[in-house]
Each structure stands twice: as C-alpha cells, then as structure tokens.
Structure to design on (161 residues):
C-alpha cells in the first residue's frame, strides 16, 4: 500500500518509537506501521538508530522523526481528541498526564514528549456550536477548568448552577 498523500511529521529528540507506541496503546484506530533506521550517521545519531517511526493516531497518519534536540513541540500544534463521556475524558487525560505529562487549562494537556493534546468532550463542542447564551455559559464554565468536567458543562448548557 502506498504511503498517504499527507502525513503529519512530529519531531522528537530520540524517542519517537516510545511516543508512537504509547499513542497506539491509548487511542482507538492507532498503531505503529513501520520503523526506518538511519542508513548512515547523522547529526544526532548513528547508522542503525531509529530515524523515522510511521504511525497512526486516531486515524491520522503521522511520522515521528528522531531529529535531535534542536526543535521542541509547542501549543501551536495539538491533537484534539473528541470524547463521548466523562469516563473516556478521564481515561485519556489521566493516561497522558499520569505518564509524565502535565495539565493545562480548558481541556489541554501535554504529554511527556511535549506534544499537546486537547481532550474535548463532544458536549462542549456541541454547546459552543449552539451559540448564544448556551455557548456563553458553557464557555465561561470551561474557562475555569483544567480537565473538562462533562457534568458541569451539561449544567452550564441548561443554565443550572
């Protein structure tokens, strides 16, 4: 099968394989699909080292490049993972944060490799799409959260609390 026409390339120092394996274990429709080793020495590695890891995260084709410490991930790029309920939200959030990551605000967290994730319950995106007072209440509730509280968003949508 030919490679996808468009692939997200994510830069890692030396641990793209570890990151890809973690993502594949966490999200449905995710897997490691290949590993390319360096055919010769390069600035941050030796011949035979893992150079590129091909993987899929929730259906999105990616490649992890072990390019060395020159570049870091930033909040300018994130994966947004839609969740259906609090249990799914908790599972992803806790796995990312609990595996060396860190919490942020409004449903954002960062994994131990510095990649940013938005763990976003569908109830929140639906509330924001509804517009008007419902969207304003849900947005105001979200602004005070780290991990999104599905029940609090549902109450805010209804104007309760």
């Amino acid at each position: 099968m030919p490679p996808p026409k468009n692939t997200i390339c994510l830069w890692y120092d030396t641990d793209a394989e570890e990151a890809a394996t973690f993502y594949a274990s966490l999200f449905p429709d995710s897997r490691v699909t290949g590993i390319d080793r360096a055919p010769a020495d390069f600035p941050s590695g030796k011949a035979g080292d893992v150079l590129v890891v091909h993987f899929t995260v929730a259906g999105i084709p990616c490649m992890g490049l072990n390019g060395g410490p020159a570049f870091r991930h930033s909040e300018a790029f994130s994966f947004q993972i839609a969740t259906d309920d609090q249990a799914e939200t908790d599972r992803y959030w806790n796995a990312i944060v609990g595996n060396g990551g860190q919490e942020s605000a409004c449903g954002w967290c960062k994994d131990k490799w510095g990649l940013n994730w938005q763990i976003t319950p569908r109830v929140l995106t639906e509330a924001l799409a509804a517009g008007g007072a419902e969207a304003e209440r849900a947005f105001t509730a979200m602004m005070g959260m780290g991990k999104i509280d599905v029940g609090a968003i549902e109450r805010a949508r209804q104007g309760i609390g």
User: Anything to note?
Assistant: The first helix runs from residue 16 to 26.
